[in-house]
Amino acid sequence: MRSAIETRGGADSVLQIGKAPDVDPALVDILYSIRLPLFPTLDITVQSESSSDLAHDLLSTDLDLALITDPTRNAKLTMTKLSETPLHVVIPRDHILSSKVSLKLTDLRDERWIVFQKRTHPVLYERIMKRTQDQGFHPRGIDHILYPDEAEHLLLATRRVALLTKANALKLAGERLVAKPLDEELLCLEEWLVARAEDNSRLISEFVRAFVTRSKTVLQPPQMSLPIGAGGSIRCSTS
Q1: In whole angstroms, what is the distance from residue 191 CA to residue 214 CA?
Q2: Whole-number mean pLDDT of the chain?
Q3: What is the rounded distance in angstroms from the CA atom of residue 187 to the CA atom of residue 46?
Q4: Cα–Cα 20 to 30 A to 13, which of 39, 55, 130, 239?
Q5: In this predicted model, what pLDDT tens digit does every residue of 171-219 receive, in sequence order?
Q6: Helix (H, G, I), strand (E, B) or coil at 89
Q7: Per-residue CA distances from 226 to 3, 14, 42, 85, 111 (Å)
Q8: Which residue from 17, 32, 84 is spatially nearest to 222, judged by alpha carbons?
Q9: Alpha-carbon distance 105 to 118, whole Å?
Q10: Is 76:196 a contact under the CB 8 Å cutoff?
Q11: Confidence band for 2, pLDDT divided at 50, 70 and 90
Q12: pLDDT score for 92
């Protein structure tokens, strides 16, 4: 069916694109900014699902492309890495740590934590716990949440700190809460553009090429480094 559409010169071309809820908002903005000369009437629809569900929907052809965080490797999927984004710490604006440009895990050693459920990001969760052990401490306590907005009440009512992905942290930041990047190179969220390996559609190929090119321009500085102000930058590494 797609071949027939493309044969008509790109008329009424549609892409079904999925995204994980915690993908960097800048990447979602790029989705809507892509213009393809060969497909002037291209329309995209976007739906939000967990990374595991997005991979399943790609394989079942319910989706054409997906922005997935920390995906499981699969030979049937073609994956292009876009960025590595540091976790962020959300704290009350009047917290003693709010004056810092960025935070280390050791800054949080005497705090009670709010953290996403392990099943949400199992590999990243294990890295957080291992990092605390390697640094010789355990949090005073940990509350686990499934949805980021659950953290807001806990943060304001119980004076805890929340470790969240950048996208979710920025949703909470405002008049009463602030988000600070976590300066831990091993604790970063990987973001990937994923398609079916067997999909040879020219539309998919052109869109992926344009998206990757645009992302290299928008995500500054290049992969593996995120500016945090005049004091320096946070570097990400999964090695």
Answers
A1: 15
A2: 86
A3: 28
A4: 55
A5: 999 999 999 999 998 898 899 999 999 999 999 999 999 999 999 888 7
A6: strand
A7: 40, 33, 32, 7, 26
A8: 84
A9: 18
A10: yes
A11: low
A12: 95
Sole residue written with tokens 């969760």: 125
Cα–Cα dist 170/88, whole Å = 9
11-30 confidence digits (pLDDT tens)? 468 999 999 988 988 899 99
Closest by CA to 27, choosing from 200, 234, 190, is 190
Whether residue 112 contacts residue 141, with contact meaning beta carbons closer than 8 Å, is answered with yes
Q: Write out the two tokens for 146.
A: 């499934």
- Reading the block at residue 238, the tokens are 């999964």
State both tokens at 213. Answer: 């090119």
| Cα distance between residue 24 and residue 170, in whole Å | 10
CB atoms near residue 28 (< 10 Å): 16
Give the pLDDT confidence of 32-79 residue by residue, as tens digits. 999 999 999 999 999 999 888 999 999 999 999 999 998 888 999 999
CA 120 to chain centre: 12
Span between the terminal Cα atoms of the chain, in Å: 43
Q: How far is 26 from 43, CA to CA, in rounded Å? A: 19
Tally of residues, the chain: 239
Can you list the positions of beta strands (E) in 93-147? Answer: 112-116, 141-145
The structure's pTM equals 0.77
